[in-house]
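CORE FACILITY INTAKE
Project code: CF-77B
Contact: R.S. (postdoc)
Sample description: multi-component assembly, two entities in total
Requested service: structural model of the whole complex
Turnaround: standard
Below are the sequence entries exactly as provided by the requester. Do not edit them.
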Amino acid sequence: MTDKHVYLFDDDLGAAYAEPQAQKDLLGGKGAGLMVMRRLGIPVPPGFTITTEVCNHFRTHDQSFPDGLEDQVREALKSVEAEVERGFGDAKNPLLVSVRSGARKSMPGMMDTILNLGLTDETVEGLAEGSGDRRFAFDAYRRLLQMYGDVVLGVDHSSFEQVLGDLKRELGSGRMLDSEIPTDGLEELVKRYKKLIASEGSTPFPQDVWGQLWGAVGAVFESWDNQRAIRYRRMQGFSDDWGTACNVQAMVFGNMGETSGSGVCFTRNPSTGEKMLYGEYLPNAQGEDVVAGIRTPLNITAKGAPIGREDETLERKMPEVFQTIVELCAKLEAHYGDMQDVELTVERGKAWVLQTRTGKRAAHAAVRIAKELVDEGVLTREQALMNVDASMLDQLLHARLPTPEELEKNGVLPVASGLPASPGAATGKIVFDADHAEEAAKNGEEVILVRRETSPEDIHGMKAAQGIVTATGGMTSHAAVVARGLGKCCVAGCSDLQVDYDKQQVIARRDGGDAVTFNAGDVITLDGTHGKVYGGALDVVAAAKVPELETLMEWADEVRTLRVRANADTPRSARLARSYGAEGIGLCRTEHMFFADERLEAVRCVVLASSAEKRQQWLARVEPMQQQDFAKIFKAMDGLPVTVRLLDWPLHEFLPREEKEYQAVADALLEDVSAVKARSRQMHEVNPMLGHRAVRVGLTMPAIYEMQVRALIQAALDVSAAGVAVHPEIMIPVVGIGGELARMRKLVDDTAKALFEKAGRSVEYHVGTMIELPRACLVAGELAESAEFFSFGTNDLTQTTFGISRDDAGRFLPTYIDELQILKADPFARLDESGVGELVAIACERGRAQRPDIKLGLCGEHGGDPPSIDFCHRTGLAYVSCSPPRLPIARLAAAQAALRNA
Amino acid sequence: MTDKHVYLFDDDLGAAYAEPQAQKDLLGGKGAGLMVMRRLGIPVPPGFTITTEVCNHFRTHDQSFPDGLEDQVREALKSVEAEVERGFGDAKNPLLVSVRSGARKSMPGMMDTILNLGLTDETVEGLAEGSGDRRFAFDAYRRLLQMYGDVVLGVDHSSFEQVLGDLKRELGSGRMLDSEIPTDGLEELVKRYKKLIASEGSTPFPQDVWGQLWGAVGAVFESWDNQRAIRYRRMQGFSDDWGTACNVQAMVFGNMGETSGSGVCFTRNPSTGEKMLYGEYLPNAQGEDVVAGIRTPLNITAKGAPIGREDETLERKMPEVFQTIVELCAKLEAHYGDMQDVELTVERGKAWVLQTRTGKRAAHAAVRIAKELVDEGVLTREQALMNVDASMLDQLLHARLPTPEELEKNGVLPVASGLPASPGAATGKIVFDADHAEEAAKNGEEVILVRRETSPEDIHGMKAAQGIVTATGGMTSHAAVVARGLGKCCVAGCSDLQVDYDKQQVIARRDGGDAVTFNAGDVITLDGTHGKVYGGALDVVAAAKVPELETLMEWADEVRTLRVRANADTPRSARLARSYGAEGIGLCRTEHMFFADERLEAVRCVVLASSAEKRQQWLARVEPMQQQDFAKIFKAMDGLPVTVRLLDWPLHEFLPREEKEYQAVADALLEDVSAVKARSRQMHEVNPMLGHRAVRVGLTMPAIYEMQVRALIQAALDVSAAGVAVHPEIMIPVVGIGGELARMRKLVDDTAKALFEKAGRSVEYHVGTMIELPRACLVAGELAESAEFFSFGTNDLTQTTFGISRDDAGRFLPTYIDELQILKADPFARLDESGVGELVAIACERGRAQRPDIKLGLCGEHGGDPPSIDFCHRTGLAYVSCSPPRLPIARLAAAQAALRNA
């Protein structure tokens, strides 16, 4: 360690600490920040910082301070005294200080703080006299006694509470507010607190201010090693070796009369982004009073104040102070390059800044502020891009509710939880079947379709409903897949619900909660983004239009190197994707096409056919429809690549459920219904996620994939003849073995060749695979022999890498994340870099080694998550693909990844 | 290439080709083998080999032969002529030769062969005269014409068949056997064949013997590149660059009268291993006649011949020839160090060896032969160990049927196929419930229990039955787990079966096959080793006693470095395991203990309890029983380590199925049956394999694992107090995240510490994890912070790495292996080295880097598969663990791995 242990806020740190990080390492985030503000000329109460090195010395040298510290502290304090013209321990004009911790990174509330230090029986009288406010002085003193007694001298917090409670009862009522205690009551309280400390504390309360100070500094350093702080560091991955700095700063008081006050001020409107000061203040009050919310604060600016109360604003009442605040806010914003949330105290007409930090804001405000800061010349475009939290953009594109946490604060709890199957929010009356939903919608009613599960028969009802909730099924259930396709919000697999179609009733029973019964026609609200169901109608915030977003997106597009594509299965969503800036379709699932009402029976016949001939015959009926689907999507994506994933669905999903459906299939196949049922029973799977699906069906029943490839290639030939630029990419799903892909590649090439010969023309197409199994990653080199592209299906890859079914994870994954903190994030929402990510990286490396120009992309839901997108950028993928409404997130996150890793 | 293109079988290859592999590379396996036999003084017809280098020259030089080849061939042929005293093309005494391919490794039937080469219109008369058998001469000629016409001159095979058919019809009957055609008929056939070749062939049949020879050599070289051969090489991983050699060898004939004959002879009895010649011969016949099976062959030795027919044996009829054969068999066996299967031809009293190879044998014969070859001083112990196919030892320990392939050859087809859930074979009458099974068994009847699925209520019936078959469920279903525990054979998940309890009927309907109905009391036979069900009673071969096995095992134990442990869940199987040489228990599953009849209701109450308190209360009832289980196993394994895996079972497996069971649980829990059912419904899982199981239950309902650990540690304390040496290893299953294991380790240590304090004593125990998820392999370093050992659970690891559920793979995995050849072996039976194996290797490396002394083992079913055991040895694992009857396999395979990789 160096010999310099103490830095005044005004000190020059010198070349050794030129880097902001080096400053924070030495002085902590708070100390470094105070220095910056002082250097900018912001009125910050003077003070100094004892370095983190001293903390580490203290911790490793039996709680002793290094040589020279005392002298340096005395020296520094002299400089503070000089600036504020008060003396530490001065009986007439005492200087009070705060002693605060401050580590390299913020650890809010984890370590200790002492305020009002410097008060003694003697100096309190000086403060009373000097301030002309005896009550204020004793109030400050009793607060110091309590904090110091607790933190430094080890008196139990509750002992102080008890003494205070007793006193209040003596004064008349135990329910009395602290602010209602008269001055002599506070004086009595001070006496009793001192007595309490003398009897229960490790020492009596020190009447020597230097003794106070060293005790407080030691306590701050010790608090680095309290259990709470250690646990927090474990969770955050902070090192125990950092240590905390200790900041000693002159106190200022907003409660010294009518020319004093405390407030909080945003430098721009955090809801709209408008450039104006936006904040509240309380005259003659301390900061903690503003937070406590006992009195209603007043506006800082006249603009936006309640009509008729403009004169009570700080702007009108103290125009000079207001002007000062306007200027220092501008200075802070210019320096930090972002909208600030500033804590202010005005002491007798002088404004002090206690703290500034980046202000939280609504999504559309964030976009507007970023854009305008560039217009104002404060930020470069690149800086502006980095200032916007990409994941917030989601809010701009879906209707939404406040988050479950926000609602819970207001006492609104969900009646049931399920999977966030399709984002958005919706309110409506409960209906239990598709026909009712359609009927109600025709009558202009808004309804929520509540089902145990949905099936293809329900699609018209899903279209008519505002949202869908199901009691069973997962993220890939029929309800979830179709709802995402339709852009409807959906909560799936809501096992808290028991649906009774006969009684037209649904009973919600959360674990440990009471059962709530809803009948048809009752109103509920869905949060598809978080997978929650609420009783009654909650306010749903509509999707916003933000003109500045377009500009921000243009800037992002200039910067990013990662391409963005959309997951889109229909012409409608393909068009939507283009409008959001998609540069192609990264995942066109074909399951949805198979489910369409009019073709479902034919598909069932395909699945249940007793011979390859019959299967072929029914496939022939599906083929022209499938061809139409592809033709429409190719037209919508004219000029852009379209990756079509061949069928990936457990066959049993297509099976009939009801007697009449079985009969219809048996009639169509000219077979006995019992034989059809027997075959259907044989298709039951124990673990369908790991079952007979995708390429495994493609290989055992090749007619299905052949039909799909024929439909796709013929569609491409037809639309290209009509002048559409078509770039089909055929993707084989769930491949884990080289031979699977080699055989499929041949099937595709042979099929295409035959059609090209027949047509006398050809179109360019590419064949690749979805990488979604651990083994596929390991044998990627072998797969690359047949594959021109890999698209990482990280949803399934996460399932198999962790051995966790997303559909079934609900009973333990939330506990892992929230309660046990075994995982930092849901691996299905944020790509797990140390497991899944390593497999992705291995696959990229081996794929490229075999085929250097292989195209690599990601089409799992991680494609819309900013940290996951950053991973994709670092791993050198060519593109990410996500659902259309997440494209703005992906574009911005890709730009940020490029800037961050430049 | 070198200038020497041709090697006589008697040539010395010189130092450059001292290595057997170098000899095979140059001359092919067949050529090198013929040289060896000649050098041993075995009477092999003389000849020479044209090298593989010539083949490659031919292929890359526009089908031309290198300079000097012709002279070298003429030179070599002269030497052959001299030895057999015949002339190539000599009109009086013609030399006939065979021209055969022979690559580095055997490619049976893939390339072309020409026999009887050297016959022309002229020399056939010389052969007729010399042999005194005109029919023989023309029969040989017509065979040459057909082979040569087809292979060399491109005449379609079917054209010859047609000419032959026409002739037979003219002679009286199209159904006439070839051997019934009279001499003049064959002469006519020769004429017609020559005419056919002249009109359809690329040239007429060459009457110049040298022209014949060069045509045949070229055809053999060309056949290296035929489609069939290329495909075979792809499959086997053979290189196209090897080329084939070409062997030219003098023909010998077994059909030259009563002093001639052909035979096949094993040097020891392949069924019993007894040291005696064992074989058959046909007098006056060619080798192909023996194979064709038209005449019944005679015994070679008098011993073992049918009673009364001893005088027809070769031993009695041609004692000198027999003596020669005895001697040359001994010579071959001594040279090759193993029992041989020798092809012989006797031509006019002289015995010739055409080929020798290692003889196939039954498992107990293999063991006896190996041991006796050591006793006889032929082999070292190490060589003997390498001579036994370890995987065959399985046959010695289970009752068994012939393989499905063998049965199919005899027209016996299974009526249904399922999963090979528990090995062995059994025959019995069908019963459909456990009570009937028990009753019938009491009456001395042998029964097979046929169920849709089994549940804990069925255990007494499973004990009583000879075998169990279920229509649903997989390798880890209740039926499979319990059957393996009981050592009963079991076919599970036999979806070909429809079980109708009401009608007391089961209908078997194989894909594409007719439905067969069985009623209660009908007899069926199960093959649990292959997962097949047969109608009626088949002969079941009982497990054999082989005294030599013990000796072989002792030798294996001296050699191997890999330890062997057993998967055993009960004291009975623990004792069985010790008797088979287990050096510990590698996997003691605790699920089985939970299923026991008398505790099942308590377990259901644990699972369905509505509060942690109630759960605790019911666990307390299970605890003493569990403690007893552990105590018994520890006693049985006195002195050896026991790895106990904590509960790994999807919770829903324990749920009640029937109304009365629900009612019983509700009564026990003092709750409403509807609430119990509702909780039960919520436990349904879409993919239970990837669901709420194992450590995930351990973390969300910690009371269960706490109970298990308490029971285990208390049992260890108790038995150690009674003088038993106890070495418990506690294994946490299905871990994928560092935090999961860290928390569990703490739970185990805390629980143990409390018991040790209470007891005032302690026992040593170890904590580790089962590695069975891809992510666990990747984060093995992190896991090794908490784990003292890893045990690879390669069953589950294979499932997640491939994304294939073993229970559901039946509809595509057999197609992958048998039909499409996408996989060479079932990855659940043989460890997939390129996928699963790489993950295992990664985990070992990272685990050791974190904790150098970490103990590594494998406890999946691969632990009983020899190639997988070889992988474990190479990867440096400490032990493998397998089911007790597979222990001899594991011990031998471990020894072989040590020898192979020394």
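Facility notes:
- Chain B has a mean pLDDT of 91.
- The CA atoms of residues 646 and 732 of chain B lie 6 Å apart.
Invoice: internal transfer
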